[in-house]
Amino acid sequence: MLIRPAAGQVSGDASLVWTGARSDGAPYTVVGVAGGSRVDVGQLRVALQSRFAWNPAVGRAEGDLTVSGSIAGGRVVVDLRSADAFIGGLLGGARIDSGFAVDFGYSSAHGVFFQGASQPAVQIPVHVSAGPVDVTALTLSVGLEPSGISVSAAVDIKGSLGPLQAAVQQIGFTALFQAASGRPGNLGPLDAGFGFKPPAGAGIALDAGVVTGGGFVGYDPGAGEYSGVLELELLGFMAVKAIGLITTRMPDGSTGYSLLLVLSAEFPGGLQLGYGFTLLAVGGLIGVNRGMRQDAIMAGVRTGAIESVMFPRDVVANAPRILSDLRSFFPPQNGTFLVGPMAKLGWGTPTLVSVSLGVIIEIPGNVAILGVLKAALPTQDEAILLLQVNFAGVLEFDKKRLYLSASLYDSRILTITIAGDLGLLVAWGDQPDFVLSVGGFHPAFRPPPLPFPVPRRISVDILNNGVERISVDGYFAVTSNTAQFGAHAELFFGFSALSVEGHVGFDALFQFSPFRFVIGISAGVSVKVFGVGLFSVSLELTLSGPAPWEAKGSASISLLFFSIPVDFDVTWGGNRDTLAPPVQVLPLLAAELAKPQSWRTRAPAGGGPLVNLRPLAAAEADIVLHPLGTLVARQRAVPLDIRVDKIGSERAADVSQCQVTVDGAGLVKVSDTTDMFALAQYQDLSDAQKLSLPSFEPEHAGLELAADGAAIASSRAVRRSARYEQIIIGPDAPAPSVSRLVPYNPTLFRHFLGGASIARSPLAQAQRTLRQPFTDRVAVLPESYIVASSRDNTPAGPVFGSHAQARAHLGSLLAADPNRVGQLHVIPATEVVT
Question: In this predicted structure, what is the pLDDT of residue 580?
Fold first, then answer.
């Protein structure tokens, strides 16, 4: 039957799939017996699929019919322990246990296909000696490759030469068998290729009396990576350690190489430096085509992984973990180099306190500081106090920020465990910020995006077992808006029949001028019998003050199924002035504007000065303004054009708002200059605003001025070749072959061209269209705010560059019409309904 559509296109596909697997996840045993030699299959899938599309060009349907199947969770087990004495003795009771997965099928378009992932292998112990060399094992493996089947044979070799012992793992050859295409192969229908199989690893051990130690070198052919570690001790005086990674294939598959080498020399007894200090070790890190991952380093502070860089211990035994950490910290990256000197200092004999410090310099890139501080008192073997702090700091030049993270790791006092983190962020770029946290933040505080994990509470586990538990934790944090701290204690004692639980905690938020604080307190205790509450007391209290004092909260007492709640709100004490002495704002602003560093000039956009400057005296050389340039005034003492309630912790005495205007003198205002200000330092904000508003916002900080009538309006330019012909008449005229076309200043070209007829000509318009064919553009604008209706978010005013400016406009609207209270609010401009 032939079906032809009248018009249009027809396409589709159909499939039928059957899947077999046990609900409990156990595999099917296809061949063999459970516990012995067998073939297991976890899941079997069979599919029939047809896909077609009508081709109107040839007037028939074209498609593909595919019958396919797949085996997942396959496993081949060959147990030779039950073989006869001859086979068992030859193979030494070897056992093959390999997983596999296979896809197979037939496609009418592509024929038979077969894909799989399997590497069955058997290792046969052998004992063959050839002089000082012993062959200890033979490994045979078969693998499915995209182009055929590979078979490899490799041996493990060990030998000794005097005090030196060496071992090589899996060195041998590999054979690849693939079907010959269109011609006879070297094995009839097959082509066979043989190649050298490099060793998977090599290790050495040395015991020469003077020098002892060992090392290991490995090779991963899949990743194209060599890795190795070495640890030697010389006369018990110095221990030399080396860790290396060489990658011969870049992560994107391109050709290239990268090198990472960590070297250290440790002095077990230390070199005396005086005043009880000793030099315990020196070292360094070198990386070629290696970058630095700051996020991995910050995470390694908490996990203790940075010890893999800072003078690691037992490098041979811990080689897999150390190499894995180094790969994570310093991945391959073309065109980037690393240099990192390191040193380890100690105090006391034997060493009681030690600090390992390293500086990693990324070229080009950032700078990181890594360190480990350890203290063991009174001795390392019988330590009452064991303190270890891992820390890392990063200076990011591109993002203009500095941050530090530190973590207590494996620390204790007697049997009391101590843990917790510290974090510091200082940013001075377009998004300035300051955050210092020891143990976390106030529960209601939303910290800005941090380049390190949010610090954990500083916690002390006094008791922690199945019957009794006493723990205490706390935090302290300072941001540009707030000062906050808190603590929490928990008690548990009991067993299956009877238990007593209790907790007490507080969270505090402080404001310094006017001085005010809010402290939330929570406490409770309960007694349970066989898991049923017998008696409990709870208290939730908010204490604020001191002018006046206020205590507000609730308490409850419960006995079996009865509960008595009590709510209270008590105020006492009169209003007192807690303000710091007021400050005169205008003199402060005037003094800031009088500083030379608050003024600078800006050259015309897109061109040179086109003027010759005469030699200037020292008194005249401070500021030189181009006739077409602008004069920029910017101060950082007081934000302009918004409400100013205070300066830091001191009230504003003379003004509530500052403005800077131009009084003529041949200058006009071009624009407002902005800078980042912490609004909590200048305005009275509620606790909720301090916790939710951005730490810094862009506010007006000054003016940009230009000569009256001579300012160039545009600050962006499309580069265009503009030249004029210059003819010099006289004895110094150049030869006719010398070019007389002189480049014209593009800024003056646009300025004088203006709206001339040549600029409006069809030819000029066509050229402009070729350079910018699209009228629609996508631009990322800075955050802005608007006053809008609370009902439907329709705008009720212009767009402002900061939240504070929008709040000031909202205040003026509500002052003019009090009936609009509750009807307007400030929202980001992206949320307005137009």
Answer: 59
* CA 33/CA 38 separation, integer angstroms: 6
680 in helix, strand or coil?
Answer: helix
Residue carrying structure tokens 């200092």: 345
pLDDT in tens, 2-59: 555 555 556 667 778 888 777 777 787 765 666 666 767 788 888 888 776 666 666 6
Report how far residue 415's alpha carbon sits from residue 420's, in angstroms, rounded to the nearest whole number: 17
Cα–Cα distance list, 192 to 141, 147, 153, 638, 729 (Å): 16, 11, 15, 81, 83
Q: Give dist(CA 425, CA 691) in Å, integer.
A: 17
Distance separating alpha carbons of residues 362 and 343, to the nearest angstrom: 18
Q: Which of 367, 359, 330, 159 is nearest to 243 (CA)?
A: 330
pLDDT for res 422: 94
Nearby residues of 51 by Cβ (< 8 Å), 6 or more positions away: 12, 13, 63, 64, 66
Is the distance from CB of 66 to CB of 105 less than 8 angstroms? yes
Phi, psi of 482 (to 5 degrees): -140, 165
Can you tell me the distance from the alpha carbon of 205 to that of 678, in angstroms, rounded to the nearest whole number?
Answer: 62
Which residue type is seen at 546?
P
Between CA 243 and CA 363 the distance in angstroms is 21
pLDDT at position 290, please? 93
Check residue 531 and give left, alpha or beta (phi > 0: left; psi -120 to 50: alpha): left
Q: Is 335 helix (H, G, I), strand (E, B) or coil?
A: strand
Task: Decide: 827 and 788 in contact? Cβ < 8 Å.
Answer: yes
Contacts for 22-28: CB closer than 8 Å, 24+ residues apart: 27/73, 27/75
pLDDT at residue 153 in the model: 76
The model scores a pTM over 0.85: no
Alpha-carbon dihedral angle through residues 788, 793, 798, 804, given to the nearest 10 degrees = 50
Q: Cα–Cα distance between 362 and 740 in angstroms, integer?
A: 48
Q: Which residue has the tokens 């203009």?
A: 400
Do the beta carbons of residue 541 and residue 561 sit within 8 Å? no
Residue numbers in the chain where pLDDT is lower than 50: 1, 83-92, 710-718
- The C-alpha angle 587, 588, 589, rounded to 5 degrees, equals 90
Amino acid (1-letter code) at residue 601: T
Residue 49 corresponds to which tokens in the numbers above? 């699929």
* CA–CA distance, 125 with 90 (Å, rounded to integer): 9
Task: State whether the Cα torsion 96-102-104-110 is positive or negative.
Answer: negative
What crossing angle do the helices spanning 319-329 and 294-303 adopt, rounded to 10°? 140
Return the exposure string of 474-483: e unless at least 16 CB atoms fall within 10 Å of the residue's CB, then b.
Answer: bbbbbbbbbb
Cα separation, 400 vs 366, in Å, equals: 10
How many angstroms separate the CA atoms of 262 and 284, rounded? 6
Give the separation between CA 100 and CA 21, rounded to whole angstroms: 16
Q: Tell me if residue 195 falls in helix, strand or coil.
A: strand
* Buried b or exposed e, range 488-505, using 16+ CB within 10 angstroms: bbebbebeeeebebbbbb
CA atoms within 13 A on the CB side of 507: 14
| Nearest Cα residue to 126 out of 151, 152, 155 | 155
